[in-house]
């Protein structure tokens, strides 16, 4: 009984944190989904003796208010207590429509000491101020892959996505209210054309290639489809030339490497059935197909063996930067991506290209890693859920499994040894995209962060572009303030955690206990500039400004004041 009471008290805090973060409230089904997404396990209904989520929340009258919507469905809303009234008010002020003009909002409204909007670069703040949800890079890549062979009618999208990837497209879990919002968020890569049959989804690259094919002689078109800045045909070792000489039937059965014109000529239905297996069962068949070929006796000359990825160039102190939080352990340990169109495209292109190359059984088999190469610190790549990722082996668990660090997303994951492949030298160039971070100037009230504090922080960060204010680097970890500018008042996350009673604002950066215990980036990623063949990518949405002494003092006083 005491264990149930303790579990119920923790659950009440978690439910209140989730509902407070949802301005319009959540249905019981949405609450279940949110809890699963945040805590990675279902609501403990059976452990507490409940048959349904609705039965559970009826036993939380001081936490949850049950309302009816216009269509008759039940909506769950939070009841704020004294410690949460402040954040509830901020959430209530959140804009329903966040696509306001850039001139109405700047990330520095609450703090004039920060760099102000630069009139010479008006576009830089349009993305920084956007409160629109965003799709993760892997999901964007899936959408582009679905449309890469031919356009698709919107009415057929859900069925085609399910057939291709073995699961439904759940846009609500990324914070979108409708499919039209999703399409607007990816308008830079997907165009919606109106036809007699209905809305047609077309990949911009597909349109560009179609125009090129009409304007450029056929013989020249294939040469111009090589990815920008990369002449892959020239860099491929002689042994890999076999990939492009596959018999026609075999080439259609497997995915073609990026840049080959045949990929765009496949009929839509045929491409969906042949290019990718459905679900995990067929994915395993593909892996078994890889293993039917014995590994090559010789390691390919372009296989990375003793090199490391480099990190992105350091950000300047007090600069503003658009960020997306990709992975969260706690407010003291999380990883971000820089909101840069250039960086985003390069990572997506890398994922596409790796998928195309390694999905060839013949090509993939060349890069199977011998047992001697499967060791901690080895940079390689791995297939997870039909996509290939750059990873570093962290530890060997047993004869079948290893734990790897995903350098572009920041998380550790256990994978099968048989899924590992040598990384091609060409894929070493792009710096590791995940930046290890800690929230500046805060420490947990207790010795460690509570589950409710972590849950709230995840909710504040989830699937949205934020403004980061760089404070400093400590032992390779970026300490920064995070601000949500999609509300009437800028919401600083360290202030929210303090107001909720989860954190103390200490005015200095306490070394992250979590990163002190384990910082894979520091172990396996070289600082920027130490990797000779790596190309540094400066984020194109940064507002760079050197901190002057006077500005620095004003900034400190403002951040320490009541405004934040």
UniProtKB/TrEMBL annotation:
Disordered: annotated segments: 99-127, 214-283, 524-564
Keyword tags: Cytoplasm, Developmental protein, Differentiation, Repeat, Spermatogenesis
GO biological process, one term: spermatogenesis
Matches recorded under Pfam families: OST-HTH, TUDOR
Bias (Polar residues): 116-127
Chief location of this protein within or outside the cell: cytoplasm
Residue ranges that the Swiss-Prot or TrEMBL entry lists as coiled coil: none
GO cellular component, one term: cytoplasm
Start and end residues of each HTH OST-type domain: 7-80, 131-206
Subcellular location as annotated: Cytoplasm
Chain intervals with Basic and acidic residues compositional bias: 539-551
Family: Belongs to the TDRD5 family.
UniProt name for this protein: Tudor domain-containing protein 5
Native organism: Callaeas wilsoni
């Amino acid at each position: 009984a005491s264990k149930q009471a303790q579990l119920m008290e923790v659950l009440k805090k978690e439910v209140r944190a989730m509902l407070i973060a949802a301005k319009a409230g959540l249905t019981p089904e949405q609450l279940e989904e949110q809890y699963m997404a945040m805590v990675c396990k279902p609501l403990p209904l059976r452990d507490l003796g409940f048959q349904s989520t609705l039965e559970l929340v009826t036993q939380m009258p001081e936490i949850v208010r049950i309302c009816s919507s216009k269509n008759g469905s039940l909506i769950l809303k939070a009841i704020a207590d004294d410690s949460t009234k402040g954040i509830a008010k901020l959430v209530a002020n959140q804009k329903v429509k966040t696509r306001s003009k850039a001139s109405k909002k700047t990330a520095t409204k609450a703090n004039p000491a920060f760099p102000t909007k630069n009139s010479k670069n008006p576009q830089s703040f349009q993305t920084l101020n956007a409160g629109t949800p965003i799709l993760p890079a892997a999901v964007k890549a899936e959408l582009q892959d679905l449309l890469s062979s031919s356009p698709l009618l919107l009415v057929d999208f859900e069925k085609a996505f399910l057939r291709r990837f073995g699961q439904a497209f759940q846009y609500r879990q990324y914070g979108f209210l409708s499919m039209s919002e999703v399409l607007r968020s990816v308008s830079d890569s997907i165009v919606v054309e109106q036809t007699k049959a209905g809305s047609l989804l077309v990949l911009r690259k597909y349109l560009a290639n179609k125009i090129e094919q009409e304007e450029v002689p056929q013989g020249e078109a294939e040469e111009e489809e090589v990815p920008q800045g990369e002449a892959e045909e020239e860099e491929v070792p002689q042994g890999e030339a076999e990939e492009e000489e596959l018999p026609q039937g075999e080439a259609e059965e497997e995915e073609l490497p990026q840049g080959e014109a045949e990929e765009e000529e496949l009929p839509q239905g045929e491409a969906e059935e042949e290019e990718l297996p459905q679900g995990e069962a067929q994915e395993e068949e593909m892996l078994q197909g890889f293993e039917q070929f014995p590994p090559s006796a010789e390691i390919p000359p372009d296989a990375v063996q003793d090199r490391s990825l480099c990190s992105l160039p350091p950000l300047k102190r007090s600069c503003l930067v658009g960020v997306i939080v990709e992975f969260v352990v706690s407010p003291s340990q999380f990883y971000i991506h820089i909101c840069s169109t250039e960086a985003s495209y390069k990572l997506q292109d890398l994922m596409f290209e790796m998928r195309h190359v390694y999905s060839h059984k013949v090509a993939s088999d060349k890069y199977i890693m011998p047992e001697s190469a499967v060791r901690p610190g080895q940079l390689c790549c791995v297939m997870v859920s039909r996509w290939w990722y750059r990873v570093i082996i962290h530890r060997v668990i047993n004869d079948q499994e290893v734990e790897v660090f995903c350098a572009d997303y920041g998380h550790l994951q256990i994978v099968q040894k048989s899924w590992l492949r040598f990384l091609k030298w060409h894929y070493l160039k792009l710096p590791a995209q995940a930046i290890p971070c800690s929230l500046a100037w805060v420490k947990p009230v207790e010795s460690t962060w509570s589950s409710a504090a972590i849950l709230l922080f995840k909710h504040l960060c989830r699937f949205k572009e934020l403004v980061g204010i760089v404070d400093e680097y400590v032992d390779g970890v970026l300490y920064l303030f995070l601000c949500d500018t999609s509300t009437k008042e800028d919401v600083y996350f360290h202030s929210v955690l303090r107001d909720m009673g989860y954190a103390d604002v200490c005015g200095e950066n306490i070394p992250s206990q979590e990163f002190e215990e384990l910082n894979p980036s520091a172990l396996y990623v070289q600082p920027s500039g130490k990797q000779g063949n790596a190309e540094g990518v400066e984020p194109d949405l940064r507002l760079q400004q050197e901190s002057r002494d006077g500005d620095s003092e004003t900034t400190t006083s403002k951040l320490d004041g009541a405004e934040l």
